[in-house]
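Practice problem 4.
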């Protein structure tokens, strides 16, 4: 059985789409999945990147794209009333529902759907209080121990080379994005492509990318 670390931040619509599509994508495969909340802003800062919502034209495209992807794949998705928003309360709440930084699928689903269904304010204090009561965290959401778990997840992701979400790491190999699910599944199914130079040498030798396309 293969194990997947699924790094996510609830602020990302692509992470929401990937999360919802994952059971279908992995159907028939023998895998375990650990859902690990991380702070996307910290990943972007580490790599010196801007988020899609920080570039006006890219922001407009992203919002249209994710809504199209949702209808194309039969995944309900609505933009929250304000986006981007501060995801820290949701991330800390998520981590507080588990023991070691990972969260179960039900908690992740509840949080994603809180943000990406209904078109309401994700950070509304009344809604967040109701969400907290529903999820019944195991520790103080804003306590030092809980904050440390979220930071540990984020630092772990950085150490693995994660630069954005959603990101899936299996056997030390990194797959990124909603559209990266197809590539992830091909790897899990034993596709021989992943044993060739297209994977093992492409980052050092860009010419291999050209030759692999013919």
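Answer key:
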């Amino acid at each position: 059985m293969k194990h997947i670390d699924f790094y996510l931040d609830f602020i990302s619509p692509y992470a929401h789409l990937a999360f919802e599509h994952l059971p279908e994508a992995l159907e028939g495969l023998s895998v375990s999945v650990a859902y690990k909340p991380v702070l996307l802003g910290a990943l972007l800062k580490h790599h010196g990147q801007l988020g899609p919502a920080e570039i006006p034209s890219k922001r407009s495209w992203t919002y249209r794209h994710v809504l199209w992807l949702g209808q194309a794949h039969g995944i309900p998705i609505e933009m929250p009333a304000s986006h981007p928003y501060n995801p820290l309360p949701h991330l800390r709440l998520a981590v507080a529902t588990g023991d070691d930084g990972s969260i179960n699928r039900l908690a992740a689903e509840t949080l994603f759907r809180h943000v990406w269904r209904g078109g309401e304010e994700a950070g509304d204090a009344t809604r967040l209080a109701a969400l907290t009561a529903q999820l019944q965290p195991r520790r103080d959401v804003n306590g030092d121990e809980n904050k440390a778990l979220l930071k540990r997840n984020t630092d772990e992701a950085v150490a693995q080379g994660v630069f954005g979400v959603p990101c899936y790491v299996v056997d030390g190999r990194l797959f990124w994005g909603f559209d990266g699910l197809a590539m992830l599944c091909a790897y899990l199914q034993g596709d021989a492509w992943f044993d060739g130079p297209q994977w093992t040498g492409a980052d050092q030798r860009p010419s291999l990318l050209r030759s692999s396309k013919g």
